[in-house]
Amino acid sequence: MEVRLFNDISYERFLSEDTLMGSRCRKCGALFAPPRAMCIKCYGSEMEWVEMKGRGKLAAFTCIAIGPPFMIKEGYDRKHPYVSGVVELEEGVKVVARIEGVDGSKPEDIKIGTPLEVQFLHRGEGANSTTFLAFKPS
Ligand SMILES: [Zn+2]
After folding, report:
1. CA torsion sign, 70 to 75 to 76 to 77?
2. DSSP string spanning 28-67?
3. How far is the CA of 91 from the centre of ligand 1 (A)?
4. Which candidate among 17, 45, 82, 101 keeps its CA 20 to 30 Å from the CA of 133?
5. What's the gap in Å between 27 CA and the centre of ligand 1?
């Protein structure tokens, strides 16, 4: 298998392949997603890739009414805010992601602790393509 460095570029490449990956410290077992090349708990630098199951629950969120241009292009605006959240994965790590399938104009209806499952949103084409990590209620 091709060696991938433990950085954001590799993380995003895995996302483009519909895979959510983290890195685990071989020394103390600490898990990081997005991956880190060095363990912040024991300063070990021997990491290994671990695939996350892609299930978790909503830990925090914000509704964003004024988004970046690519979000406006997707139809999000003041009347249709999108939701950005922190998802606590079953593995115990927290990732920041877009939360789909909830109504950003009704934050009072969005509940902390909602079970979520991963979704990979592919946008753009060729060299401009990106994949956004997203979660939706499961
Ligand atoms: Zn460690």
Report:
1. positive
2. T--EESS--SS-TTT----EEEEE---EEEEEEEEEESS-
3. 16
4. 45
5. 5
pTM (2 d.p.): 0.91
Alpha helices in the chain (DSSP H): 8-16, 69-73
CA of 49 to the centre of ligand 1 (A): 14
Q: What's the 45 CA to ligand 1 centre distance in angstroms?
A: 8
Pairing of strands 47-51, 31-32: unpaired
- Give me the sheet containing 47-51, strands edge to edge: 31-32, 21-25, 47-51
Cis peptide before 69 (omega within 30 of 0): no
Ligand 1 midpoint to CA 108 (Å): 39
For residue 20, the CA-to-ligand 1 centroid distance in Å is: 20
Residue extents of the structural domains in the chain: 8-51, 55-137
pLDDT digit string (tens) for 41-87?
A: 999 999 999 999 999 999 999 999 988 888 888 889 889 999 999 99
